[in-house]
Amino acid sequence: MTTPVLDQARLxxxxxxxxxxxxxxxxxVCRLALTDAxxxxxxxxxxxxxxxxxxxxxxxxxxxxxxxxxxxxxxxVMAGSHIDTVRTGGLYDGNYGVLAGxxxxxxxxxxxxxxxxxxxxxxxxxxxxSRFAPDMMGSxxxxxDLPLEQALATRGIDGATVGDELRRIGYAGAxxxxxxxxxxxxxxxxxxxxxxxxxxxxxxxxxGVQGISWTEFTLRGVSNHAGTTPMQMRNDAGYVAAxxxxxxxxxxxxxxxxQIATVGALTLSPNLINVIANQAVFTVDLRNTDGAVLATxxxxxxxxxxxxxxxxxVACERRALARFDPVRFDPAIVDRVERIxxxxxxxxxxxxxxxxxDAQILARMCPTGMIFVPSVNGLSHNVEEYTxxxxxxxxxxxxxxxxxxxxxxx
Amino acid sequence: MTTPVLDQARLxxxxxxxxxxxxxxxxxVCRLALTDAxxxxxxxxxxxxxxxxxxxxxxxxxxxxxxxxxxxxxxxVMAGSHIDTVRTGGLYDGNYGVLAGxxxxxxxxxxxxxxxxxxxxxxxxxxxxSRFAPDMMGSxxxxxDLPLEQALATRGIDGATVGDELRRIGYAGAxxxxxxxxxxxxxxxxxxxxxxxxxxxxxxxxxGVQGISWTEFTLRGVSNHAGTTPMQMRNDAGYVAAxxxxxxxxxxxxxxxxQIATVGALTLSPNLINVIANQAVFTVDLRNTDGAVLATxxxxxxxxxxxxxxxxxVACERRALARFDPVRFDPAIVDRVERIxxxxxxxxxxxxxxxxxDAQILARMCPTGMIFVPSVNGLSHNVEEYTxxxxxxxxxxxxxxxxxxxxxxx
Lengths: 410, 410
Known about the structure:
Chain A is of the alpha/beta class.
């Protein structure tokens, strides 16, 4: 098959057009899942799918799938992502993967071409999790690990349930969930991190998604006068928190490049200059592409916190806020991404995804891969989120080649 | 001179009686400086002084001094402290020193005795600093290092000025400040720390007051996604804050027992689990009885913070919130306290004061000392503040002996 030509201007225009729905004054977008703004965004995408001659189904959790039929009746090769945003989001996170998928279909259609397998483009409900937990909800129901009833009963930060809101906006679809067969899945996404931008690399060959461990620690000590309490008589919750936070950094040095650790939230009580803190609540975000190392680091962290607290006479409780094992994408798809980028003369490097994506859920049901393009200054979940037009086009061209190759496999 | 007998029951009753003025529901006292409650407390103490036949003067900053005349016209030996409290204070902080001084005078009067030198009892305005900064305001004006006009113009947390409030409550006195001659000054006080209570020691022989250095650090880094930002690309203000906080603890280990350090206040922004902190604001409270070691520790802290921030690519600003050099009390008075406690069979130990007291200001103008009694569990500035009656009496008996010895010197 000859490679069809992508309409670059239309791709860029479609990002602006979808981004105008739920636009924030001064820049950025707010289309929280299942709000009126989300409905308008969905309506826009569904209309575009229909205009491209795709058959569109909406399933019971509101996932939308458009199918551009193939020459053979087989499971589709699927491109996809999400079109909901965080409260102060940008134009690219999620939307780019969906709209680029539609441009690939448009290019095929404009050229009068059909692939052996169908090509599907999906948008999954509530990937962000900003209104309803958990995130990646639509893909989890689609893949089967989250029961539909449980997802529909989920109550959001504003008290509404997923089921009620799906009905309200007209996206409680008729298609059953869990009945899908997918040949393979590809998600094109902005990196949402600084690596490609800082290294001036155009294409990220995503090998997998890091495992995540979020722990919240609550330390309880004794408040006392900072001037009159000798060091050896202290039960200083603030000191233990600071020591555990520095240990988290030490863990990253011990385990090397793929182990990352962040203490982003830390609150002391009573938080006064001259009073020893009687309470510290803080979180540790550990991530690693290697599940065994992540589990080791997690245990080291917990043991260190317990021992340091005990030595200070401080009570230490912890609870898990999130835990995902790492995901490795299909090696054959990863290799294809790498080869295609090279053939097109695009600089590229392998890297893991630091953020979560629907692709990590789809990877449980079919061969899956991801393509990253640079995020300027690594910014995302931010109205300043930006990717250069040339990079948006380069990523879409890699996606186009990849989808055709996968769909044309024997 | 025969030692007169202290009326133990009356001392304890007077603490309860003064503590009933401004009493909080459920326990504790609130007599913030120059409020109506403070006026009522002052009125009670002044009436008690007059009832003891003392001549009372109120100076221009509202300090009250009662003098029990001696056999000779000489500068008085002075006992004193303060009767203002913090917002949720106890019965003992300050009040104890003033009321015990009055009981010493009462004992002399009841026995028909007069010492060679006069014995004065003083209460100093606004020692706590809870409503008007700085603390120890009355003693600073009395001693001369804080100009009267500056003190009177001070605006409090509620917008009122010291001068207006002194006039309003009738304590803008006629006596000039800075005209006082004091032979020697002794302050009896609860420890406000845990040392005596934990070691079951009855009398603290106070050698001096620790020097204090309060530094506020403001660190500015870059917020980024905790999952997608490699460790070596971070500018994590939270990590630098935690590392500096643990270094403060290391300093206390390096410099030994008299160096103390507290990070009581620490605030991260945006304070989210999965976002690297772009700002950390925190305070370090360093104290030492040795001024040279304190200055060394302070410089080490500042240098370490600057170097750690620079290595992380984080901007570091600092400002001094407070700085007092350590004070050493008069060795002859310290020796006397120690000897008297021993003679009375009271267990005792030397220790520094961790908190600030009017005595450290008086020490600039005359030989000065302090006597501590235990605070149960080290609590103070707290409605749970408590000292056992037997300890209150023991401390007052040491004060009585000390005042008589000082007043009877040739």
